[in-house]
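The passage that follows is intended for readers who have already worked through the single-chain material. We present the inputs for a multi-component assembly, then the predicted structure in tokenized form, and finally a short commentary. You are encouraged to pause after the input and sketch how you expect the pieces to fit together before reading on.
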Amino acid sequence: MRPRTLLGPAAALIAGVAIAAPTAALEGAHASSGHIVTLKNIRFHPATLTIKRGDTVTWQWRDAPTEHNVTGPGFKSRTMAKGSFTVRFTRKGTFNYHCTIHVSLGMRGKIVVR
Ligand SMILES: [Cu+2]
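Having made your guess, compare it with the prediction:
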């Protein structure tokens, strides 16, 4: 797979890091859903996740004591061994992310927003 630019134009497509908001705040017919990605064994599970616009993704650290982070276009978590990090995706597109510590080991993931 060829390398992708993670901080390119797609960064402008992310509204920002946010915790889950009341569904009533969202426009459109789709009620927002929350999705979980687990960090374990130096991998993201699932590595590719398809969601709908307005949904949130919460990454959950389950690989202590190994530290990881979640770094993508317009979002970046702390580097930590335990915890969680939530992003709401407000635009359609494909958003590649990775752990900066383990990117060379292939710790990469992708959120596809439809
Ligand atoms: Cu990592």
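Commentary: The beta strands are 34-40, 43-45, 48-51, 56-62, 71-72, 75-76, 82-88, 93-98, 108-113. The chain has one domain: 9-18+32-113. How closely did your sketch match?
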